[in-house]
Amino acid sequence: MSASLNQGPSRAKMLAVGAVCIALAFVLNQITLFRMPMGGSVTPFSMMFIVLAGYWLGPLFGVFAGAALGLLDTITGAYIVHPVQYVLDYILGFGALGLSGFFRKWKYGLQIGYIVGVAGRFLMVFLSGVIFFYMFAPEGQPVIVYSAVYNGAYILPEMIATLVIISLPAMKHAVDAVTKSIVSPADYAAMTAAGKGSAAIAARILTGTVSAIGGGIAFILANYLQRMENLTIIQLTTDAVPFLDTPRADRLYRLVERTTEQVFALQTVGVIFVAIGIALLFSTLARKEE
Questions:
Q1: pLDDT tens digits, residue range 231-288?
Q2: 167: CATH
Q3: By C-alpha distance, which of 155, 178, 185 is closest to 4?
């Protein structure tokens, strides 16, 4: 009896579930809400299904599912400048989403696993940006900041939106129902035992905190870019650059235009995320008072 309780999902079931997760992630990854010029896009929750693969089937299978998604993404037009960059952006980047499997038996493991998986992907694409795309950083802007802003611009919005979705009670019940049909009874018992308690409130607190922190980071980056823009404007107005070096002046003018757009986008993202975070945190306080 105990042996049957500890028995995990069959190999066929794991392959079937993994294939469905990869397929759904691939389809959603082709629906781009916003595409960056040198790779990367905001999609409707495509990362979530690779995170779920890790959550349901374990980290090893989750990492393989993410790597498979990266390979499939190559077919539809990956942005590749170097083999190592390809591995970082697509194989390791998507594969890192499967790290969620390490937290499947933790309390609020899905939310924590999602944050860790997405953070792993961000680290991979951030390193790729620093190593292989440093030449695209605007003049005077550190490449570390450039890579963080560029990659955070498409990863952070999807991360926050997905955290809100998976914290909704209806989504939680749906994931729980699928989990029960996939994992072994022993694993399911451990996963549900870890999640007992005021899970809905804790999920709101976690999501609200992450959202507010993400909004704060967006404001910090916007403030930094604003200062860089001010320095560029001062340089244009006091150093007689337009008269002495016209090509350089044109580059600086374009830099000011791009920076203005980036600042506006970051400030907008910051307002939205901080508002979501405050709303979620206040909703938990209101519930406690009831």
A1: 666 666 665 555 555 666 676 677 677 677 767 776 777 777 777 777 767 766 654 4
A2: 1.10.1760.20
A3: 185
Give, to the nearest 10 degrees, the angle between helix 11-29 and helix 46-57: 170
Q: What is the mean pLDDT of residues 152-172?
A: 83
pLDDT at 1: 41
User: 30 and 133, same structural domain?
Assistant: yes
pLDDT in tens, 37-58: 556 677 778 899 999 999 998 8
pLDDT-derived band at 68, boundaries 50, 70, 90: very high
Is position 208 within any domain? yes
